[in-house]
Design goal:
- This protein is mainly α and 444 residues long.
- It has two domains: 229 residues, no CATH class; 203 residues, no CATH class.
- Helix content is 86%, strand content 0%.
- The chain is built from 18 helices and no strands.
- Helix 4 runs parallel beside helix 8.
- The longest helix is centred in the middle third of the chain and has 38 residues.
- The mean pLDDT is 84.
Length: 444
C-alpha cells in the first residue's frame, strides 16, 4: 500500500475508473436479456423476464452483505500484511455463500410461492416466469460466491481484475443468450439457462484467477481449515454480515417506501419518479467508484494502524466524490430533459419529471457524503454503527414524509428523500470520531 504522499488524485482515479465501468456493466445483463427476448421471444417471454429479474434482484440484493463484509475484512488483513488471513477471509465468505446459495435452492418452492403470490401477471407470463425461476435458481451458489470474490478484489484494490471478470460475465451471457433464446428458440428458459451457465463459468474463471494471485510462496497450505473455522473470526464475520444485511434491507425499504408513496399521487407521478430514480441510479455508478476505493484503502490503513494514510484517503476521495457529485447534479439539471425524453414520449410524464428534476439533482449533489461514509465504515468494518445509523435515518425519512406530504404533496416527498440522504450521512458522522480513534492508538 502506498504512503500518504503517494495517494494522489491520479492514483485514486486510476483505482476508481475500472470500478465505475464494472458497475455500469452490471445492468447490462438485464438489458441484454431484454434485447434478446424482445427480438427472438414472445410477449409472454418478455413479461417473464421482467418478473423473474425482479425476483432475483430482490433476493440477491438482500445478500449484498457478502460483498461488503468481505471487503472490510480483506482490506484490513491485507493492510496488516497477513496473506494467510486474506485467504481465510475468502474461505469464510465462500463457506457462507455456499450455505446460503444451497439453502436458496433447497427453499426454492416456498420462495417461488411467496414471490408469485405477491406479483401479478397473466397465466402465460406467470408460467414462463416460473420456468425461468426454476432454472435460474440453480445459479444462486455461484452468484453469492461471486459476491464474496468481488468483495475480496475490492478489498485488495484489484479493480482492473474486477472489471475483467464483469466483462467476461457479460460477454459470455450475451453469447449464451443468443444461442439458447435466439438460435435454439428456448425463450425465457433459454435466458435463464444462459445466465446460470455464465455465472458458474465466471466463478470458475474467478477461482483460477484468485488461485494464481493468492497462491502462497512456500509450503503453507492455501486454506488451513483451523484458520477458516476459527471461532472468533467466524463470529465476527457473521456479526458484521448480519449488521450489513439489516442496513441493506432498511435501504431497500426506503426506496420501496418512496415508490409506494409516489403511487399515491397517480400513474403519471409514479412513472416520472421512476425515471428520475434511474438518473439517480446512474449517478450512483460514479459515486460508488470512489466509495469502493475508500473501502479498500481505509481498510488497509486500519490494518496498518496508520492514521496519516487513513486521513489522506478519506480527504482526497471525498474531494473527488464531491466534485463528481456536482458535475452529475449539473448533468441531471441540464441533460436530464434529454434523458427523460428518450425514456418516455408521454407529455404528462415529461412535465411531471421536469417539475421534480431540480430536487433529484439536489439529491445527487448531497448524496456523495452518504456514499463516502458507507465506504469508510465498510472498509473499517464498523458495521454495527452502520446498522444503527440506518435505523436512525429511516426514522427521519418517515417522519419527514409524514410532516411534508400533506402540505407539499409530491414536492414534500422529494424533500423528505433529500433529507433522508442527508440524515444517512449525519447519522454516520455521529460514529465517525470513534471509528477514526480505532485506526491508531489513542496517543496518536
Amino acid at each position: 500500500m502506498p504512503d500518504s504522499q503517494a495517494i494522489t488524485y491520479r492514483h485514486l482515479l486510476h483505482k476508481a475508473w475500472p470500478i465505475i465501468l464494472a458497475n455500469a456493466a452490471v445492468p447490462l445483463l438485464g438489458l441484454v436479456d431484454t434485447a434478446v427476448i424482445g427480438n427472438f421471444g414472445s410477449l409472454a417471454d418478455l413479461g417473464a423476464i421482467a418478473l423473474g429479474a425482479l425476483i432475483f434482484s430482490f433476493v440477491y440484493w438482500s445478500f449484498g452483505f457478502l460483498r461488503m463484509g468481505t471487503t472490510g475484512f480483506a482490506a484490513r488483513a491485507d493492510g496488516a500484511g497477513d496473506s494467510l488471513e486474506v485467504r481465510a477471509v475468502l474461505g469464510r465468505a465462500l463457506l457462507l455463500a455456499g450455505v446460503l446459495g444451497t439453502s436458496l435452492i433447497a427453499l426454492q418452492r416456498p420462495i417461488g410461492w411467496l414471490a408469485f403470490a405477491l406479483l401479478d401477471g397473466s397465466d402465460n407470463v406467470e408460467a414462463a416466469a416460473r420456468t425461468y425461476f426454476a432454472i435460474r435458481i440453480w445459479g444462486a451458489p455461484a452468484t453469492l460466491a461471486g459476491f464474496a470474490c468481488m468483495g475480496l478484489l475490492i478489498g485488495l484494490g484489484r479493480s482492473k481484475q474486477l472489471l475483467v471478470l464483469q466483462l467476461f460475465l457479460n460477454g459470455l451471457n450475451v453469447l449464451l443468450d443468443v444461442l439458447f433464446a435466439g438460435w435454439l428458440g428456448l425463450g425465457a428458459a433459454g435466458i435463464a439457462l444462459g445466465t446460470v451457465l455464465a455465472e458458474w463459468s465466471t466463478l470458475g474463471f474467478t477461482a483460477w484467477l484468485l488461485g494464481r494471485s493468492l497462491r502462497p510462496g512456500n509450503a503453507e497450505r492455501f486454506w488451513p481449515g483451523s484458520r477458516i473455522l476459527h471461532g472468533p473470526a467466524l463470529l465476527a464475520t457473521l456479526s458484521a454480515n448480519l449488521n450489513i444485511m439489516w442496513r441493506t434491507l432498511i435501504l431497500v425499504f426506503s426506496f420501496a417506501f418512496f415508490v409506494n408513496q409516489s403511487a399515491r399521487f397517480g400513474e403519471v407521478v409514479l412513472a416520472a419518479n421512476h425515471i428520475l430514480l434511474q438518473l439517480i441510479s446512474f449517478s450512483a455508478f460514479f459515486l460508488d467508484g470512489y466509495a469502493f476505493v475508500v473501502e479498500s484503502l481505509a481498510g488497509k490503513a486500519r490494518g496498518r494502524r496508520d492514521l496519516n494514510i487513513f486521513d489522506a484517503v478519506v480527504r482526497r476521495t471525498t474531494e473527488l466524490a464531491a466534485l463528481s457529485a456536482l458535475l452529475l447534479a449539473l448533468a441531471v439539471l441540464l441533460l436530464g430533459p434529454i434523458a427523460v425524453n428518450v425514456l418516455t414520449d408521454l407529455a404528462e410524464v415529461r412535465e411531471s419529471a421536469a417539475d421534480m428534476r431540480g430536487l433529484a439533482a439536489l439529491y445527487v449533489l448531497l448524496s456523495f457524503a452518504a456514499f463516502q461514509l458507507d465506504g469508510i465504515f465498510i472498509g473499517v468494518s464498523f458495521t454495527r454503527a452502520m446498522r444503527n445509523a440506518a435505523m436512525l435515518s429511516i426514522s427521519v425519512f418517515i417522519a419527514a414524509s409524514w410532516l411534508l406530504l400533506p402540505e407539499f404533496g409530491v414536492t414534500g416527498l422529494w424533500l423528505a428523500m433529500v433529507l433522508y440522504v442527508v440524515a444517512r450521512a449525519l447519522s454516520l458522522l455521529l460514529y465517525y470520531p470513534a471509528l477514526r480513534a480505532s485506526i491508531a492508538p489513542a496517543s496518536v
